[in-house]
Amino acid sequence: GFGGSTGRAGSRARFKGGDYQAELRLTLRQAMLTHQQTLAVDGKNVRITVPAGIADGQKIKLAGYGQPGVNGGPNGDLYITFRIEEDPTFKRLGDDLYTDASIDLYTAVLGGETIVNALDGQVKMTIKPGTQPNAKLRVRGKGFPVYKNEGRFGDLYVTLKVQLPERLSPKEKELFTQLSNISKQ
Q1: How do strand 156-163 and strand 136-139 relate by DSSP bridges?
Q2: How far, in Å, CA of 161 to CA of 58, rounded?
Q3: Is the C-alpha dihedral spanning 67, 68, 73, 74 positive or negative?
Q4: Are 22 and 80 in contact (CB under 8 A)?
Q5: For 35-80, what is each residue's pLDDT tens digit?
Q6: What is the rounded CA–CA span in Å between residue 53 and residue 82?
Q7: d(CA 48, CA 39)
């Protein structure tokens, strides 16, 4: 009979290989730059390019990097989940970054300039006279790179913490008394 031959043909079926799951931890600073990482997957080193602006929990699929297929079937895929560590200085929300900066009382009252740390260097900010404690300033384009959108960045929001002087000289006391009198008029 012909019955036996179908059984043999059936065992020749091609199956796609299984998928692999991997996790990759990055610092916020690493996630800011497009860069290469090497992952060990099933004893093999896989070089991947991590695009700038990748988000925490985001998955990337690498087709064909999973388990080998059966009977010449295609390989499975590799799914990489990214975990971005919290940064001590910057909080990331979408493409925007949030940070704090300290200014002294004189700069808050009289205005002036202050240097603020951004993720990729320093930014000079202009403080308006009469700036209130915890005022939020926005620095355009100094936030996080927009994923897969070369040259586009979110914004940096800076919360200003005003440092009060610990000791006032007699002259300073006099000045602050005058200031408070002016503001009461």
Answers
A1: antiparallel
A2: 33
A3: positive
A4: yes
A5: 999 998 888 899 999 999 999 999 999 999 999 999 999 999 999 9
A6: 11
A7: 8
Longest dimension (CA), the chain: 113
Tell me the whole-structure pTM to 2 decimals.
0.78
**Are 142 and 155 in contact, with CB atoms under 8 Å apart?**
yes
Query: What per-residue confidence (pLDDT) applies to 17?
Result: 94
Backbone angles phi, psi at 101, to 5 degrees: -140, 145
The per-residue pLDDT for range 88-128, each reduced to its tens digit, is 999 999 999 999 999 988 899 899 999 999 988 999 999 99
Task: State the amino acid at position 108 in one-letter form.
Answer: A
Give CA–CA dist 32/70, Å, rounded.
39
In one-letter notation, the amino acid at residue 142 is K
